[in-house]
Design goal:
By secondary structure, this protein is of the alpha+beta class. Helix content is 54%, strand content 26%. Strands 1, 2, 3, 4, 5 and 6 form a 6-stranded mixed sheet that branches. A hairpin with a 4-residue loop joins strand 2 and strand 3.
Length: 290
Amino acid sequence: MPDLSKNLTVILLVTTILVGCSKKEESFANDAALETESAEFSKAIQENIAENPKQLLSPQQNPLEKSRKLVKTSQLQFEVKDVLKTTSTLEQQLLQYNGYIESKQIDYQISDRSERDRIDGSVDIYEKITPIAQLTVRIPNEQVTSFLNNLLPLMLNFNTQTYEAKRYELKLLEEKLNTANQSNTESNAVNNQLQQLTDLEVKDRLAYSTIRLEYFQQAQVRKSHDLNINRIATLDSDPLLSRVWEAIKMGLYGFKETIIWLVMFWPLYIVIALFWWIRRWYKTRKQSQG
């Protein structure tokens, strides 16, 4: 019997150890499977993340572009890390490309606002702002491709781009068709002036391309301060006893003003008294006759 019990004990111990080992192997296998799935999922996310383009325009120029007079225009929209620093960098780049800024507008768009009143009468103002810049720049035609491609390092996220290179004759024809319905009663002198201005515009358009840039940065919180005039006036009031005395004086002044206002109606009082006397005289006479 002792030997039987020893054998049973050994069998139970061996069974327990084998079961424990199998569970550990299953746990390790599950952990490895989870790590593999997590790595594949992370890889899939990285592959699907949108990236900025490597270049905006090909540096290789089509031979047809060299032989034709083209009016080039482009428009880009993108996100940057800092609007003001990006604007300063663009201004430096324009000097290198012999370009210039035709128009510039920097705006801080407010999308949300909250206020908090303080005990001392001041007001804390919190605003959610999005800095946005809009630039119209003119670049020599031969420098357009290089300038646009050098904008990529400034971009945090690229949004949209449009590019147009039209023959000047076609561009001019479109503008003429748009103004064909206008009156033709201008004098010859005016027509000559318009022709001169048109010639200057032709030279400018063929020499410089127009590029419109719109860029913005992530929303920020701007804190400013203001004053609550009503609160400050209340805090700056006199002590209680002084205010009570002022209230008594104001009451006496109002009482005097009321008396003066009532005295202004003395003709009405005379009419009422006369009416009352006539009515009493009439009743007395009627009683005496009866």
